Amino acid sequence: MINIVLFGKPGAGKGTQAEFLKEKYNLTHLSTGDIFRYNMKNDTALGKEAKSYIDNGDLVPDSVTIKMLQDEVDKHLDSKGFLFDGFPRTLAQADALDAFLKSKSWEVTATIALEADDDVLVQRILERGKTSGRADDQDEEKIRNRYQEYNEKTAPLMDYYKAQNKFYAVNGIGSIAEITERLSNVIDKL
Ligand SMILES: Nc1ncnc2c1ncn2[C@@H]1O[C@H](COP(=O)(O)OP(=O)(O)O)[C@@H](O)[C@H]1O
């Protein structure tokens, strides 16, 4: 069982890399952003609850997000391991994840951050917004708000995982294949 947390600012490439890593390492990919978007598209109660936060670039409240993530893990109890993408994003979520995995005798194996400069990332998101149809990708003010949320609430998680000796970082600038290789180099040594 290996459980990897993919970590990085909005636009860092977590989703793109997760697609390759899940195949290579036979992991269950859980993207909280994708799960929220699926629920918004299908107009579920969860989707309705999350929509206003997401469209404004705010984080969805912890209680909602943690419950959703736990339900998704519980749907895949026979998994060989999980690739968490977009979760945890707050200390409360990180604590909840540790406790939840522990209750199953599992743990986070490693957290790997994709690093890139903010200007590169904002440009990537605006490009993505032209085709993704995501409201939160099209408005520079909302994108800036996502970075503020990241800096205030998510960045402290680096110290949280460093204190557990579970934090790794790779350069997120380069070709998709190059970055997959950098991530694989970390995972292969775990
Ligand atoms: N763990 C989380 N906690 C709270 N909100 C979340 C979480 N994951 C995703 N969201 C919501 O979904 C939005 C989109 O997430 P995601 O697709 O991971 O985008 P990105 O990393 O590109 O900003 C976030 O801006 C936030 O509103």
From TrEMBL:
Gene encoding the protein: adk
Description of how the protein assembles with itself and partners: Monomer.
Gene Ontology terms: biological process: AMP salvage
Residue span of region NMP: 31-60
Reaction(s) catalysed (UniProt annotation): AMP + ATP = 2 ADP
PANTHER family listed in its UniProt record: NUCLEOTIDE KINASE
Function, as annotated: Catalyzes the reversible transfer of the terminal phosphate group between ATP and AMP. Plays an important role in cellular energy homeostasis and in adenine nucleotide metabolism.
Main enzyme class: transferase
Keyword list, A-Z: ATP-binding, Cytoplasm, Kinase, Nucleotide biosynthesis, Nucleotide-binding, Transferase
Pathway stated in the Swiss-Prot or TrEMBL entry: Purine metabolism; AMP biosynthesis via salvage pathway; AMP from ADP: step 1/1
Subcellular location: Cytoplasm
Annotated residues for binding of ATP: G11, A12, G13, K14, G15, T16, R128, G174
MF terms (GO), sorted A to Z: AMP kinase activity; ATP binding
Pfam family, one: ADK
GO cellular component terms given for this protein: cytoplasm
Protein name, UniProt field: Adenylate kinase
Chain positions recorded as AMP binding sites: T32, R37, D58, L59, V60, G86, F87, P88, R89, Q93, R134, R146
Family according to the record: Belongs to the adenylate kinase family.
Comment, domains: Consists of three domains, a large central CORE domain and two small peripheral domains, NMPbind and LID, which undergo movements during catalysis. The LID domain closes over the site of phosphoryl transfer upon ATP binding. Assembling and dissambling the active center during each catalytic cycle provides an effective means to prevent ATP hydrolysis.
Coiled coil residues, start to end: none
InterPro entries: Adenylat/UMP-CMP_kin, Adenylat_kinase_CS, P-loop_NTPase
Listed EC numbers: 2.7.4.3
